[in-house]
Amino acid sequence: MANNEVSDVSDASHGEDARMVALGYREELKRVLSFFDNFSVAFSYLSPMVGIYSLYTLGLGTGGPRYIWTIPIVVACMMLVALVFGELASEYPLSGALYQYGKYNVGPRYGWYVGWIYGFALLATVASVDSGAVLYIVDLVNLWFKTDLSSTNHVTIFVIVGLFFIVSGALNAVGAKIMGRVANLGVYVETIGTFGVFLALAIHGFHQGFGFLFTTQHVQDVSRNAFGVNLGGNWWLGAALVAVLANAYIFYGFESAGDISEETVNAHRSVPRAMRSALLYGGIASFVLVMGLLLATPKAGIAGVVSGGIPVVLAQLPSYITDFFLVMVVIAFFSCGTAVQGAGARVAYALARDGALPASNWVKKVSPKFKTPANAVLIGVIVPFLFMLLVLVNPSKPIHILWFYYPANVNALYALVSFGVSGIYLSFFLTVLGSFIARSRGWKPSGSFTLGKWGLPVTVAGMTYLLVMFVNICWPSSLSSGRALFNYGWITLLVMAVIVIIGGLYEFIVRPDRKIAAHRIEKS
């Protein structure tokens, strides 16, 4: 039996090698990740715990308890995207995923733009995820050691987040299998931290009935909104369009399964399945966690939860149980940050391998001992740390230049975080659009996973969702509106424009697409 299993793995590896050669590459990375490892990385990046613990109060404060029903809507729409990505991942099982899909479906220049936006968004996400753990770490340290640390202190932020970057980088550099193990741990922790929280709160006793999940608690009325924001007085056309962002900001990351294709055994089959599985399990876990938190809302109402966050709900549990779940949250943040950093490093490696980045020869080097893109991983440490310097920019008064407003007491890192999400959605949209363009040119998927006759309608539906949600994310509005809680008025759109313009200037001057094209001509 063992010999048969070894033979199956060997056959799959040879098949992947042949496909890479057909696409113009040779095997450099170590193919050691199983389906579960691949799924774990994708699921850890999506991370229901990180998403819910970061955005629950925004969803609740802008949509009321009824916002929970936007979860299945977003998951269903994103599943369309996951199906399209799965088809592409099966056809092009290469590191760099979205960059590769755009390159082969449309062309070198198109692929480079997708890779630039997607890679930048990933590295921005590393900074946002790891910085999000600071609040929970500081709370635990203060509780256990009777200290008085502040989660807003710059030194505290840099020390904690810097350690996260370095440890994650070390784990990513010493082997894909180690990254997989960290992600495996993340899956177990996420399962305990979502279903476990629900069970603990249920055993302790819910304070609300099931009907509470269908109420708005009048959040659409500015006079009764805990944030004091104006949602237009209408839940469907106002509050819902804003509250859905709390879930739109969570349900992505499944595409990272494709970023590590070259390190996954039987990638052309495993990756599409891992993408769908991560999204579906993430949706179920998120729904269960949010439902538990809502049903455990104190009788006093949602205002206290919106102002105090999830700890207000967990405080109803015995302190040792609350501490245990907070430790699970910290581990989930670390696992998520490690997965995102690993995915970002693979995108940098893929671009550098085609000569499309500055110092490409250095960035693309693979560790001879560990068979990992060690220098690209180092990029995944340095760039997010540079992003962290933005935390020092925190104006005490609102800044008004022309029609641009920057709110007071919002550090600039948050603006970059908002780009991370909008950048992901834009790169997703461009990738699905690329698939549509390829189909219109006569491309017929030939991988082990295809959508068959459903390919075109699924592609069009997924593309439509991404465009609508991208506009919803970036649409500028006054700082008194609910959407400004997510995109800070014009800031998200402005940061997006700056990143795209910088990329455009680099592409125009350096023309990395020519090197990408030359690679295809020389190697294919």
Can you tell me about this structure?
With 524 residues, the protein is mostly helical. It has one domain (32-523): Up-down Bundle (Amino acid/polyamine transporter I). The protein has helices spanning 2-22, 35-46, 48-63, 70-91, 98-105, 108-132, 134-145, 154-173, 176-204, 235-243, 245-248, 256-259, 267-295, 303-308, 310-314, 319-353, 360-363, 374-388, 412-440, 455-474, 484-487, 491-510, 512-523; strands at 399-401, 404-406. Helix 6 packs across helix 22. It is globular, with a radius of gyration of 22 Å. Residues 1-9 have low confidence and may be disordered.
Short description:
With 524 residues, the protein is mainly alpha-helical. It contains 23 helices and two strands.
Entry keywords:
mainly alpha, disordered N terminus, 524 residues, Amino acid/polyamine transporter I, 1% strand
- Radius of gyration from CA coordinates: 22 Å
Shape: globular
How far apart the termini lie comes to 38 Å
CATH superfamily: Amino acid/polyamine transporter I
> Would you tell me the structural class of the helices and strands?
mainly alpha
- Oligomeric state of the chains in view: single chain
Report the average pLDDT across residues. Answer: 92
CATH architecture: Up-down Bundle
CATH topology: Amino acid/polyamine transporter I
Strand content of the residues, in percent?
under 5%
Largest sheet: 2 strands, antiparallel
Count of domains: 1
